[in-house]
User: What shape does this take?
Amino acid sequence: MSSAIEDYAIIGDCRTAALVDRGGSIDWFCAPRFDSASIFGALLGSEDQGCWRLAPSDPAATATRRYDGDSMILVTRWETASGIAEVFDFMPIDGGRVDLVRRVVGVSGHVEFSTSLRMRFDYARAMPWVRQVGDEQAPALHATAGPDTLVVRGVALVPSDHAHRAVFAVAAGETCDLVATWSHSYRPDPGLLDVDAALAETRDWWDDWAARIDHRGPHRDLVVRSLVVLRALTHEDTGGIVAAATTSLPEQFGGARNWDYRYVWLRDASLTLEALIAHGFLRVAERWRTWLLRAVAGDPAQMQIMYGLAGERRLDEQELTSLPGYQGAAPVRVGNGAVTQYQADVIGEVMVALEAARIAGLDEEPFAWALQRALLDRVEAGIDRPDNGIWEVRGEPQMFTQSRAMMWAAFDRGIRAVERFGLDGPVERWRELRARIAAEVHARGVDPAGGWFVQHYGTDEVDASLLLLPQVGFCAPDDPRMVATVERIEQTLLRDGLVQRYRASTGVDGLAGGENAFIACSFWLVTQYAAMGRTKDAQELMARACRAANDLGLVAEEFDAASGRQAGNTPQALSHLALVGAADALAGHAGRAAHRR
Assistant: This one.
């Protein structure tokens, strides 16, 4: 059985990633991209779906782990009765190759290690053809299945029950390097990796990047780790930003709310962009804007709410039987059916993010503004159309209040682009549409009895996404309707001290079962508390929400406070960027609201 979600660490090369559990098993690895088929898929099943274990032979060995500084190099320190050793797990950032490196370093005494390799290509649908290609001095195992090849070097691996195993030892000062190199099966083997150089270069790359982080405020370690995770989820070549590194980790343990998050949602990417811009990373905004131009190119009416890493449009959802699911939670899905949904908030998020880049000093690009004008035409065309909302409900589309507010924000940012930055556009028409949406929300998006904003027109339910309204300037944080909304959220959506997205029992999402607290929502409430002047409440909720992070500072999509377990895909970009925003709010930074000045 796979480990608890919070027991996993992530390593990556800004093109793909691997998950390593506390016991030294790599249980998830897709190559060469985040959304490629898995080679190690035990995360969504068992060792039969593929994994690579490396740990001391002594069953009584104990482990502690950390990242090497602000890098994505995982260091696991093993202590046994006979000695101490450390394992450095990392992926070099090199566009020419994909390597998983496991360096074992003896610290004191001597430590015997055992390793077990089970390769299962194509989501465990293909058992590879495996052969020995090295020699006694340089052993190498070559595995091929269809278009993929994995070559594993470092120790002599011998076959045993559809796995390959080895035992070796390191003494104090000794090093043993195990390297798995992926390549296309129809291309030459990339050859030996210089591990010394790769380790030094990888450490320097991450240290140089993290050194540019601009954050002065509380929770610095978590903020820095969150920003590093967001960078790791940003594809180095395409500029696409994935929502998470995994697919089908359940929102409810044993349930069917299991989705593939290894794609680029325009909303999540826009929010990530804002977080990175706010902390000194403007270049990523330029790269993502270029990605956006490529992905949305053509008729704006054909715009999707999500794309593949390079802007691919076909992300058909399918269920896999070759992966039984995380601790039995089925089905496992690849692709995402939400790709065909209409989500009316998305263009507003894009417009807000691009304005943030404009304010930060990103040079205007004529084609970029032309795209934004075309996107506003699309907003107008859908102004009376119900949507599936920020939560991608699979029930009936509704007039979601947060979506309406983001349509307002889209026109608002278009107006300000003309008024403040001298760009051209039908500003009078946009003013009319902005006013129309505001009046409509005030009339239909507020509960007449309680005075709070509602999840969608025609209900008295609230939704945690309403906490975003002040952040984009739709209303003031202390607006009486917002104050009432916060009170209602506290009454109906707080569970074990953390915030749920909405009450799933209403059936609004069209799905069976329930879910755990959605971590980003708790951080949004922290931001709202801070903006309302409820500093003590903000600090206390921040402390509770930060406990959702694991020992390495990684945050999944959801959290069960009662059991202390993470749930949903991990690490989740939305959770990490919301954490960053909450920490900024506690530090007195206005964040997204600053754009309204």
Observations:
- The mean pLDDT is 95.
